[in-house]
Amino acid sequence: MEADTKAKRHVVCRADEIQPGASKRVQVAGRDIAIFNVNGEYSAIGDRCPHEGASLCAGAIVGLAEADEPGEARMTRHGEFVRCPWHGWEFDLKTGKSWCDPRRTRVKKFDLAVEDATKIVEGPYKIDVFDIRQEGSYLVIDI
Amino acid sequence: MTSPVPSATNLRAGSLPIAGLGAIDCDVHPRSPRRQDLLPYVDDYWREIFMSREIDHLELSGYPETLRPNRAAPDAGNGDAASLAKALLDPLKLDAAILNVTSGVHAIFDPYLAQVLCQATNRWLAAEWLDRDPRLRASLIVPLQHPEAAVAEIEAYAKDHRFVQVLAVVMNDKPLGQRYLWPIYEAASRHGFALNIHAGNTYRHAPTQSGFNSYLVEDFVHQTQGFANQVGSLLAEGVLAKFPEMKVVLSESGVTWMPSLMWRMSKDWRGVRIEVPWVKEMPSLLMRKQVRLTLQPFDGPSDPAQAARAIAHLGGDEMLLFSSDYPHDHRIDVAYWPANLPEELAARAARENALATYPRLEV
Ligand code: FES
Fold it and tell me: What class, spelled out in words, does domain B7-357 have in CATH?
């Protein structure tokens, strides 16, 4: 909780720089963060795969393969996971948790908000908004 | 080659007697039946076939039990129920012993002959062994060559709880996870049978992935790869997931190779599990829940402290079952807990684990 109260907000990019289905790696406070646009919803997780360090923003945004019975596979939760480009581990974009080992294997999840330029200009964090323009929406991250 | 029990010349006698543990011996070998044993249990057509085709003693060429070095001594004590009691069950004060017949029946190509041999062998086991000693149990022999007949045999013995598991040899036609065998697992699981995978090879394929080996020592060791293949197959094809109540008992498999299989499958499952989404849990967890291994012969270090470390990698003692593999000679005195196995395991492996493995086993 303490970390939360200390979190600073950072404007990371324009929202329209990441089209639906695409991702972008940004550096905030020295950390690599992967931002994904899943059908207009943004999520931000640590970019480094906890397995061997691949860049997750290069991974495919995928659904979850599930099966109630052997041979009866189906896709669910479309677009809610990223699959690591190196060895295929799947991470839940909403929680940063590995699907296979949610307790022990996870990437950090960051709070991400889309805010209007006006709000950012008027907000208390002007130091972070040096690159904003007056129009359009921006992605802001707490770190 | 077989040492009588108790033996004065055993090389690695432990000090903890098995007697007193209320032990259940999960792998004991009666002599395999000969023609005169089976003839009473077949009809006149098959009697004619047995006689005219000279079908008598069917042995697996991988373990020809009438040849050296496998040949049991004349006093081996596995010739009939009374001598087995005297040689093994009485001195060890066993509460139960499970009889496993691994004979040439597993290698027969003719599905109907295989069926008849299985039926006759089971009837012989029931009449000549189980009826004669209430402590005896057995693996049901079923023709995997003929899954329909195998299911019928399971149904026929569903009410006879002295048959506690269904036996398959580890190296046979195809990986055991494949779907054509599932009716067998469905019936077995519904009636509470475990699946016993026993060392043995029908030589349908070379015993190694690199071809045929030249020597017996290699043949023994490569059985381990067969066991690993079968566990992998049962997991990936979904047998463990589909039949979660059915335990898979590996007999004469060794133990120390199992943790590395568990680790490796768990690791690679993370990356390729979309192929097998019915495997919903970490493979190591599924294996720990469902796979069991008998302890004789043990493939680990001879120092029990080191053996304990190797065993600890399994992540749970519940996977281990006591067995003597009697009368196969491992140069130890089976009346004592093996000196190379940690004694702390004894109570659990000798009894509790078997009771948890075999729902049909009532002692
Ligand atoms: S680096 Fe991501 S799965 Fe191996």
Answer: alpha beta
How far is the C-alpha of B89 from the C-alpha of B85, rounded, in Å? Answer: 5
Among A19-28, A107-116, A118-127, B99-108, where is mean pLDDT lowest? Answer: A118-127
Encode pLDDT of A94-134 as tens digits: 889 999 988 888 888 888 887 776 554 433 322 232 232 33
Which residues of chain A have a CB within 8 Å of the CB of B282? Answer: 100-101
Burial of A2 from C-beta contacts in 10 A (0-12 / 13-18 / 19+): exposed
Angstrom distance (rounded) from CA B362 to CA B358: 9
Residue A3 inside a domain? The answer is no
Label the pairing between strands A41-46 and A31-38. Answer: antiparallel
CATH of the domain at A21: 2.102.10.10
Number of domains in chain A: 1
Which residue of chain A has the CA closest to B235?
A: A70
Q: What is the mean pLDDT of residues B226-247?
A: 98
Residue A68 lies in a domain: yes
**A77–chain B nearest CA distance, Å:** 14
Q: What is the pLDDT of residues B307-333, one digit of tens each?
A: 999 999 999 999 999 999 999 877 778
Strand duo A137-142 + A9-14: pairing: antiparallel
Rounded-to-integer distance, Cα A34 and Cα A110, Å: 10
Q: How confident is the model at residue B13 (pLDDT cuts 50, 70, 90)?
A: low
- For B88, the token pair is 């093994």
Q: Rg of the Cα trace of chain B?
A: 19
Contact between B35 and B57 under an 8 Å Cβ cutoff? The reply is yes
Contact across the interface for A100 and B277, Cβ inside 8 Å: no
- Which of A83, A100, A101 to mutate against chain B (most B CBs within 10 Å)? A100
Going by C-alpha positions, the residue among A103, A90, A89, A23 that lies closest to residue A63 is A90
Domain spans, chain B: 7-357
Range of the domain at A47: 9-142
**Cβ distance of B270 and A98 shorter than 8 Å:** yes
Measured between CB atoms, does B271 come within 8 Å of chain A?
Answer: yes
User: Of the candidates B169, B315, B151, B307, which has an alpha carbon nearest to the alpha carbon of residue B229?
Assistant: B169
Alpha carbon distance A95, B116 (integer Å): 59
Measured distance CA(B103)–CA(B100) in Å, rounded? 9
Atom of ligand 1 nearest to the CA of A87: 3
Q: What is the pLDDT of residue A6?
A: 65
Provide the 3-class DSSP secondary structure of residue A53.
coil
Residues with CB under 6 A from ligand 1: A 49, 51-54, 84, 86-89
* Contact A2/B at CB under 8 A: no
Q: How many CB atoms lie within 10 A of CB A19?
A: 11
**B20-79: per-residue pLDDT in tens?**
999 999 999 999 999 999 999 999 999 999 999 999 989 888 777 777 777 777 778 889
